[in-house]
Input
Amino acid sequence: MTNSDFHGSGLTSALSKPVTVSWHSPSNIALVKYWGKTGRQLPVNPSLSMTLSKAYTETRLTASPRETKGAVELDFWFEGKQNAAFGKRMITFLQSITDIFPWLEQVSLKIETHNTFPHSAGIASSASAFSALALCLCSLDMELNGILLDENEFRFKASYVARLGSGSACRSVFPGLSVWGLTKALPGSSDQVAVPVTEIHPVFTTLRDTIIIVNSKEKSVSSSEGHNRMIGHPFAEARIKQAGRNTASLLEAIKTGDKQTFIRIVENEALTLHALMMTSDDGFMLMHPETVRIISRIQEIRKETGLDICFTLDAGPNVHLIYFENQIEQVNKLIVEDLDIKIKQNIRIDDFFGKGPIKVG
Ligand code: PMV
Output
């Protein structure tokens, strides 16, 4: 799949009135991490994630008539306010995909976007933001050009477009679990788009993710910079092989209901991600002392209680506590009585295995 597979056409006649589409699209949490990219936002290794439910972005995209064709025109609103900084990133992205949607240069655009989670919660919002925008663009494309895509074609196109905005966003267009990146372990997998995981033992549809916010400040090193530091990383080759093995083992565990293998791999991936950050030539650390305290405690609690709990980390200090619905009461008690107790200004988001994006307008 390449850009030319998705090359669209411009408008044959000028737009007569504004057209609006709207999508809700969730964030996702990677269980096998994408870390390092090449070419036009292609991953150096396969990744596997769970699409969340409660943490999502709601985006409304309006195309209005415009007199002359030219560079992308965008009026960008975030949380009810015009936001020039985010708008600039969006214009750069939209301008880069005018080969896919040539009509972007023939209309005036307005994006109104809102997150269900606080902006300061430290949750990566680029996955939900870019997947919501990609879904809106694909819907608008169908309306403006009268194109008919079936459900599969539509999702893959949205995944492709989302990837160009932010790599991890391509996984959010599918419900439940999805894989992005070519791997022999999953026929049909691709570097260009994410694909849904279909062989899932029922126990893994009950996965939960409680996000414990340790710090909500902007990260000292962005994900894009982190990906860059994988170029020439002394452990890059070993990491790429390990991600392939972990993806294969995790897919097998998810298929067979093997919770112990799942726990082992999920924690191994989180620790590897942060170890790669620390061991890059220009090493950096995104974990805070509180992050280390919580993840160590989660491992101890698992040993002490036998609960099926584990942690994962994004590129930041916040902890994702992963567990299963049948142990929700015990885990809640632990979070309140044991883990959260020492966090002064904690914010906690209880999320779970999501059903995927929804078109709301
Ligand atoms: O999609 P990006 O460029 O923000 O990178 C995301 C990287 C991680 O969140 C650390 C891992 C992942 O696979 O989502």
Notes: The longest strand covers residues 47-65. The pocket of PMV is lined by residues 30, 33-35, 47, 124, 126, 166-168, 223-224, 273, 314-315 (CB under 6 Å).
